[in-house]
Write a structure and sequence with these properties.
446 residues; 15 helices; 15 strands; eight-stranded mixed β-sheet; alpha/beta
């Protein structure tokens, strides 16, 4: 048990509340271990069953995770706000932060001119929205999705990709249901699945997306939903190929018991064709957000799907948040319609591709395998994440350990290329090679 925090309580509810309070107040940090069930039961003079029920409740709420012989630990990002979040130590002075997974702000289109034009065009203030989706935005979204082969008769709008996925899972599933997710996969999604009380089944990923045998195994294990990243998979950069899409469609055909969710968060930044699975199952949804191409502060995603699924998501929003700001919707529509903005986004995609491919090639020259077919991240398999992250930090590079992205996948680190210039690629690759193989010789030998 962490020496600086004392768990209290005489009932399972009181114990779980005490642990939550510790997480909220900073007594427990992300990743900290909780005491073993029997050890805490002895300390509190309670039965092990009481403590076990408390831990079960914490797991169901996504606050902790049980990792076999490693015991029970606080999740890397538990779904409760910490009062001490602002006290986390800053990155080492002078270190390059390649761990954030965010787009390059230098390549994002400026919003000021569009906002100014919108202010002049938007007209008088309006009251509560009569229509959740601005009709012109819906028409533009249908046109863009249809051009990529996504059926888009039914459309709604959500507050970003993760908001849309959360609404989909909440509308279709119940706590305890199993969700098939990519492994390694998007850390925020893994945290969301845990926070909803759902059970994640990891599906292996290669450069062409989810593997067919992995999906088959997840379906056999009772998955009620399958979440697929179409392109720029986080963290590996995988993109679903035409052959893989065909194989997955054959596996999913007619599965009326399965909700299929596709996430195309890279959208216009992707430099490979989209091969959608939309419509492979009766219940499906395709989510495309605008944050990566146009800016993370634009919290909007369009969601297409079958009639019942879209109606559930729209209905859930209507009794909750209500709608996504029509001002925001009109701003996104203006960006979509602006040829200059389209040119900026295209140049951004080309820049990410040069940096990503350049890093993968530079690593390969050192004998280090890496993955990064699309997107803004490169995934490097490593023998020991802690050793590599520490060595790179000491060399002035901050990268993300893969543990927050993994269920059963092998270790790795994620490197975001958006903060890099092309001149950085060679020294970074050399530093990664030294970190991965610290005893390996460098330079030429006679």
């Amino acid at each position: 048990m962490a020496a600086h925090y004392q768990i209290e309580g005489s009932t399972s509810a009181a114990i779980s509340a005490s642990v939550e309070r510790g997480i909220r107040d900073g007594g427990f940090a992300p990743g900290d271990p909780l005491p073993a069930v029997r050890a805490l039961a002895t300390e509190l003079a309670l039965s092990p069953a009481t403590v076990a029920r408390a831990y079960q409740e914490l797991r169901q709420r996504g606050l902790v995770v049980t990792a076999g012989r490693h015991g029970t630990r606080v999740r890397p990002r538990p779904p409760v706000a910490s009062r001490r979040a602002g006290l986390l130590p800053p990155p080492l002075p002078g270190a390059r932060n390649l761990s954030a997974g965010q787009p390059d702000p230098r390549l994002l289109p400026p919003l000021g001119p569009r906002l100014a034009a919108l202010a002049a065009e938007i007209g008088p203030p309006t009251g509560y929205a009569a229509n959740a989706v601005v009709p012109d935005l819906a028409d533009a979204a249908r046109e863009r999705l249809s051009a990529d082969g996504v059926p888009a008769a039914e459309i709604t709008v959500t507050g970003g990709a993760l908001d849309g996925i959360e609404r989909l899972l909440a509308a279709h599933l119940r706590p305890g249901d199993a969700v098939a997710v990519e492994d390694p996969g998007w850390a925020n999604l893994l945290d969301l699945v845990a926070a909803l009380g759902l059970r994640a089944i990891g599906v292996p990923v290669d450069d062409e997306g989810l593997t067919a045998p992995g999906v088959r195994a997840a379906l056999a294990a009772g998955a009620r939903a399958l979440i697929v990243t179409s392109r720029a998979q986080n963290p590996t950069g995988a993109a679903v190929s035409a052959d893989r899409a065909d194989a997955l469609r054959a596996l999913l055909a007619g599965r009326s018991d399965l909700l299929l969710i596709e996430d195309d968060h890279a959208a216009e930044l992707a430099r490979v064709p989209l091969h959608p699975l939309a419509g492979a199952t009766p219940a499906w949804a395709f989510v495309r957000s605008v944050s990566k191409p146009y800016g993370p502060d634009l919290r909007l995603a369009v969601l297409a799907g079958d009639e019942a699924t879209v109606a559930r998501v729209a209905g859930r929003a209507r009794v909750g948040a209500g709608w996504v700001s029509t001002v925001l919707q009109r701003l996104v529509l203006a960006l979509w319609r602006d040829p200059a903005t389209a040119g900026l986004v295209d140049r951004a995609g080309a820049s990410y591709e040069r940096r990503r491919n350049g890093l993968v090639d530079a690593l390969a020259a050192h004998g280090v395998a890496a993955h990064g077919r699309t997107g803004i991240n490169v995934w490097v398999p490593v023998p020991d994440e802690t050793v590599v992250v520490t060595a790179l930090r000491d060399a002035g590079w901050s990268v993300a350990p893969g543990v927050i992205n993994r269920i059963a996948a092998a270790p790795g680190v994620r490197i975001t290329v958006s903060p890099l210039d092309e001149a950085d690629l060679a020294p970074l690759a050399a530093a990664v090679a030294r970190a991965v193989r610290p005893s390996a010789p460098f330079g030429f030998t006679a």
